[in-house]
Specification:
Blueprint: H1 2-25, H2 31-56, H3 65-72, H4 80-96, H5 104-122, H6 126-145, H7 148-158, H8 167-188, H9 208-240, H10 244-264, H11 276-280, H12 286-303, H13 313-333, H14 342-357, H15 360-371, H16 377-393, H17 399-410, H18 414-426
Helix pairs in contact: 1-2, 1-4, 1-8, 2-4, 2-10, 3-6, 3-17, 4-5, 5-6, 6-7, 6-8, 7-8, 7-15, 9-12, 9-14, 9-16, 12-13, 13-14, 14-15, 14-16, 15-16, 17-18
GO cellular component, one term: plasma membrane
InterPro entries: Cl-channel_core, ClC
GO molecular function, one term: voltage-gated chloride channel activity
Length: 430
């Protein structure tokens, strides 16, 4: 229920913000007034969100998924009393400002912290704490994407070294996912898949080499993306210098700029989820798609890496869709594509997610559930396997592992990084 409201409120605020600013565009003062108003509104939203995060709950910054993964092995504390309100209200403000952020990571952290809160209130024993944490995280993702199977698989695959495999534990996760998805459908008012797409013509087996090559390209892109995230996070840390108001003002300015961008070119702002169907249908030109891809990449670096509450899950899916659309349109331009380039955009979402997060099964099932289409399962598997293997060969670190280790390093827990790496080695991860 909480995650359903976390979906509805930013959507309503965004709609109200953009419609009000559009009305200003119709006035005599026109663009200047609308731009100033857009900057001011998003400046305030981002500034407040950043202030409360830095001041009261630094753990609520960013995605939140690494925090849950760390808590599953006692490397990070679960301070739900301060994380829940800051993540919920701070996330609503940041997501409503137009910044390039997603709500899926925060939904996972909110779900996991709610599970921890239930454990604390009911005095549940320690060994069941991890089950409740995992169940809450899975239900958060399932609710965010209306993808119950992917929510369950994400915990079993992405958190597989931390998850305590017992039949009762798997059952608890499954039950949590079912209830959260049903509650979300009841509150939001529909249970439709995220993307409403037509059926495409099938892909000939002779075209499978295209998906292999595309997967290799996406694997390289995933490694570059993860390293760019790490570099940009370090850059922000150096610029902030540990000062509260310095960080608040810088992030508020970034938020204000994206507020202005949201009325000029909405495709380069927000999570991108509302435009993915359009990119899959490749109704835009190759030049425009390439430009949006570059600007959205820069948007993720500027918005996510600053530490404001907001996820990278949906923005990374947007980048994958754009990468696939650009690749497909390029092949079409040179006359070497004999199927719809939108298929590569669909495959690109799962391949890019798998290359970055290193959760291939979740990547495949998530996109199949979101599109309500298992038609391209085999091409998707080819691209996903190629992408993950390429990322591994290039020594790329899984995104959430990389962020968790960075958090541990900044908190002065260098020994815990080695402990965590050793733990993952013993469980044959990476």
């Amino acid at each position: 229920m909480v995650c359903a409201f976390f979906e509805m409120i930013p959507n309503m605020l965004n709609q109200y913000r953009t419609s009000s600013l559009s009305a200003l565009l119709d006035n005599e003062s026109g663009m200047v007034t609308a731009a100033l108003a857009a900057f001011a509104v998003s400046f305030i939203m981002a500034g407040i969100a950043m202030y409360f995060t830095r001041k009261y709950a630094p753990e609520a910054g960013g995605s939140g998924i690494p925090e849950i993964e760390g808590a599953m092995v006692d490397l990070r504390p679960v301070r739900y009393k301060r994380v829940l309100p800051v993540k919920f209200f701070g996330g609503i403000l940041s997501l409503s400002s137009g910044m390039v952020l997603g709500r899926e990571g925060p939904s996972i952290q909110i779900g996991g912290n709610l599970g921890a809160a239930v454990c604390s209130l009911l005095k549940i024993k320690k060994e069941d704490f991890y089950v409740m944490l995992a169940a809450g995280a899975a239900s958060g993702l399932a609710s965010a994407f209306n993808a119950p199977l992917a929510g369950m698989l994400f915990v079993l695959e992405e958190m597989r070294p931390q998850f305590k495999y017992r039949f009762s534990a798997v059952q608890a996760v499954a039950m949590a996912v079912i209830v959260s998805t049903a509650a979300r459908s009841f509150i939001v008012g529909n249970s439709d898949p995220v993307f409403d797409l037509p059926m495409f013509d099938g892909v000939n087996i002779r075209n499978f080499f295209d998906f292999l090559m595309f997967g290799i390209l996406v694997g390289c892109a995933g490694v570059v993306f993860n390293r760019a995230v790490g570099w940009m996070q370090d850059f922000y840390t150096a610029v902030f210098r540990g000062r509260l108001w310095r960080s608040v003002m810088i992030v508020a300015v970034v938020g204000g700029l994206y507020g202005v961008a949201s009325i000029i070119e909405p495709q380069v702002t927000g999570s991108g989820m509302h435009f993915i169907s359009e990119w899959i249908m490749t109704s835009s030109s190759l030049k425009l798609l390439a430009g949006v891809l570059f600007l959205r990449f820069m948007g993720v670096m500027l918005c996510f890496c600053c530490g404001i509450p907001g996820g990278i899950f949906a923005p990374s899916l947007s980048l994958g869709a754009l990468l696939g659309a650009v690749f497909g349109m390029s092949m079409l331009h040179f006359g070497i594509l004999n199927y719809d380039p939108g298929i590569l955009a669909i495959v690109g979402m799962s391949a890019f997610f798998a290359a970055s997060v290193r959760a291939p099964i979740t990547g495949i099932i998530l996109i199949c559930e979101m599109t309500n289409n298992f038609q391209f399962l085999l091409p998707m598997m080819i691209a996903v396997v190629a992408a993950t293997q390429t990322a591994a060969l290039l020594k790329g670190r899984p995104l959430y592992t990389q962020i968790l280790e960075r958090t541990l390093r900044l908190s002065g827990n260098e020994e815990k990084i080695e402990e965590y790496r050793e733990f993952k080695k013993t469980h044959n991860v990476e």
